[in-house]
From TrEMBL:
It comes from the Bacteria. InterPro entries: Glyco_hydro/deAcase_b/a-brl (IPR011330), NODB_dom (IPR002509), Polysacc_deacetylase_ArnD (IPR050248). GO terms for molecular function: hydrolase activity, acting on carbon-nitrogen (but not peptide) bonds. The keyword Signal applies. Residues 1-25 form the signal peptide. PANTHER family: GLYCOSYL TRANSFERASE-RELATED. The keyword Transmembrane does not apply. SUPFAM superfamilies: Glycoside hydrolase/deacetylase. This is Polysaccharide deacetylase family protein. GO terms for biological process: carbohydrate metabolic process. Residues 272-445 form the NodB homology domain. The lineage of its organism: Bacteria, Bacillati, Bacillota, Bacilli, Bacillales.
Length: 453
């Protein structure tokens, strides 16, 4: 089925922007260059923005290399800006009331002492004509922090596109007849071979497949492709040394800035219970600071966690569990479920369920839907879906005092309060809430302990 013209234009713009921002970033030299021999301890950043007109979720990696990080941040910001422009144009043209969505995810494909390779997956939903999925691959040279273009990787005097084309077709033919229609459409042109990634095995070529959600992946062995690379990049295929898992278990220190609190001074009134719930974590610093505040007030809360972030910070997840708090499922990478198939939704939930149970050793029954967005009507949900009853809509733009005041003005027995543990400002908001809730005789409990839940 042919895409509407706006989607075709948007796809071209996104593809062009993916190439242009890499070129622009490479024109500027990095102030802090990565050490060639260093293996990066990669962390994850998550940005989630919810507005009436659109939702944006962006996951991206962060490294010890400032130049690499800045290139990635510039890429994310450019994708957001372009999406907002196209969303506005679409709203003006179609007058639709459905929220649009931009979702950016990533996978680290390869890393050794010299190279860091990451693939970004961009999903755009403008409400009409289907969902667009695009990708951007960055092959970073750790030595200078540059994202290398095809022209920089391959020798000038070799027709590398022709070679890649021939080898890719051979591999796809060997794989079987299911690729026959796709093979017929391939041409020895640069636009067919822009999406390549350096790996320990060789060059990984991504071929878009309109019939499937994921592109076809073809590995060209390093014994072949190394002849095409410039001499300074022959080390691209060196395997990384055996990684040592770093759980970031550094001592956080025992100092606590929060005032002493005695539960006996604030006796709870019968039936006055509320739940504090935290979405989008875990965060290696913010979540721990929230735990410290909760401990000061002898309060227990519920944390709804994104599976992808759990994989990066399992030690924080274990700490939440060991300190007596409740853990729930917030899907794998926080997409809007209403645009997804039942199979995709099941994958989002079951993958998160699996990693949470592996990390905590406990079964996780609670589920919170990203943006509160319901799946299709015929979807059979897994787990107990937990809504919220109180949410300060402009919390990101308000100081903690204003957020706490807004929430407290709406509180009643069995309220479920929605907060987020990615932003440092939430720590102060939590302290203000607990101080006032206990002063009013409320008890703060995990959401599953509420009488109406």
């Amino acid at each position: 089925m042919r895409q509407p013209i706006i989607y075709t234009i948007l796809f071209v713009l996104l593809t062009a922007s993916g190439c242009s921002f890499i070129a622009n970033a490479n024109e500027e030299s990095g102030k802090k260059k990565g050490k060639q021999a260093a293996m990066y301890d990669v962390s994850i950043e998550t940005e989630i923005n919810e507005f009436e007109e659109y939702h944006m979720t962006a996951h991206y990696p962060q490294t010890p290399n400032n130049q690499i990080d800045q290139t990635i941040i510039d890429y994310v910001n450019q994708q957001k800006a372009l999406f907002k422009q196209e969303s506005y144009k679409s709203k003006q043209k179609n007058n639709g009331d459905q929220a649009h969505e931009l979702h950016i995810d990533f996978e680290v494909i390869h890393q050794n002492q010299r190279f860091f390779v990451v693939r970004f997956i961009e999903t755009i939903d403008l409400g009409r004509g289907g969902v667009i999925t695009n990708q951007t691959i960055m092959n970073f040279d750790k030595k200078n922090g540059k994202a290398l273009s095809m022209e920089e990787l391959f020798k000038e005097d070799i027709y590398y596109v022709d070679r890649l084309h021939d080898w890719t077709k051979e591999k796809m033919i060997d794989a079987g007849e299911e690729n026959s229609k796709l093979i017929d459409k391939l041409e020895a042109k640069i636009e067919f071979y822009e999406d390549i990634a350096l790996t320990g095995e060789g060059v990984l070529v991504f071929i878009d497949d309109p019939a499937n959600e994921e592109p076809v992946r073809v590995i060209i062995e390093k014994s072949k492709v190394s002849k095409l690379l410039r001499s300074e990049y022959k080390g691209a295929f060196q395997e990384a040394p055996e990684a040592v898992t770093n759980l970031n278990s550094e001592d956080q220190g025992s100092d606590n800035k929060y005032q002493d609190f005695t539960l006996d001074d604030h006796l709870h009134e019968e039936g006055k219970e509320v739940a504090l719930t935290f979405d989008d974590g875990p965060h290696p610093e913010v979540t721990r600071q929230i735990l410290d505040v909760l401990d000061q007030y002898e309060a227990k809360a519920s944390f709804f966690m994104i599976g992808k972030r759990v994989g990066y910070y399992p030690e924080v997840v274990r700490e939440v569990s060991e300190r007596g708090h409740e853990i729930g499922n917030h899907t794998w990478n926080h997409p809007r479920l209403g645009r997804m198939s039942d199979e995709q939704i099941n994958q989002q939930i079951s993958s998160t369920q699996t990693i949470l149970e592996q990390v905590t050793g406990q079964k996780v029954d609670l589920l919170r839907l990203p943006f509160g967005n319901l799946p299709s009507a015929n979807y059979q949900e897994e787990g107990h879906v937990v809504p919220w009853t109180i949410y300060s809509e402009k919390w990101e733009d308000l100081p903690p005092e204003a957020v706490a005041e807004d929430i407290l003005s709406k509180v009643e027995g069995d309220s479920i309060i929605l907060l987020h543990d990615l932003q440092l400002s939430t720590v102060e908001t939590v302290e203000l809430l607990l101080e006032n809730l206990y002063a009013k005789g409320y008890k703060v409990v995990p959401v599953s302990h509420l009488s109406d839940h």
